[in-house]
Amino acid sequence: MESWFKSNVLADKTALVIGGSSESGPVVCKILNGHGAKVVFTYYKNETHARKIEKELSEKQKSKAYSFDLLDMTQVFGLLPEIERDFGRIDILINLGGPPPIHTDFHVLNENEFDRMIDSHFKGCFFLSLEAAKRMESSGGGVIINISATSSTKYSHSVYGLAKACVKEMSRFLAYTFAPTVRILTIVPGLIDIKEVDLDLRNARAEASPLKRNVTAEEIAQLVIAATSPAFTSITGESIIADAGFYLLHP
User: Fold this and answer.
1) Which one of 79, 135, 148, 220 is most buried, by most CB atoms within 10 A?
2) Burial group, residue 234, by CB count within 10 angstroms (0-12, 13-18, 19+)
């Protein structure tokens, strides 16, 4: 899988994709791989599926899948040193993973639900980004892309939306701290057109958007390639909304 960018635009780069074995993750991994990157990625439960992806990626570039729980801070702090031992350095981090959204109304939200969303989608993401940024700064540079969601703009989306809003602001704070060596951006997708999402919901959301479609996993991956390529070297701290214009009609 490639794009309009040169196939070797990420040659000699090592890219880590958190959550690379599920939903849109495999597509992101394959497109990074197709542009020359050595792709390492994490999986949570399905090792068999992860090893299959690893084998496919390894046909082009060295690849490895790592078992990882974003809610376990010991694993959060231990992952990057392990990858550096195996691959030498990390040039690109894509924070794509996290548990399914919780949209419990704040009137009845409990502490366990709050912790699950904040500790994964925000706290784990923050410390992965922070640790990666420090390593990238020491090794000469890198790019971090945090995947938020348009739920970050929906005040009815409870603690999931809150956690994803934190991700956007986190990227700005870190982008300031680690400039000019490390660039940090946020991609904010709307509903992603993948089979794991209910077909009726996908159709309804597409019809309600100005472009009459949803964003695809391939398009998220293409944005990742763009953001990590020389085309974006003057951009940091920014958020890119990819939702076929849905936000324009439903802010």
Assistant:
1) 148
2) exposed
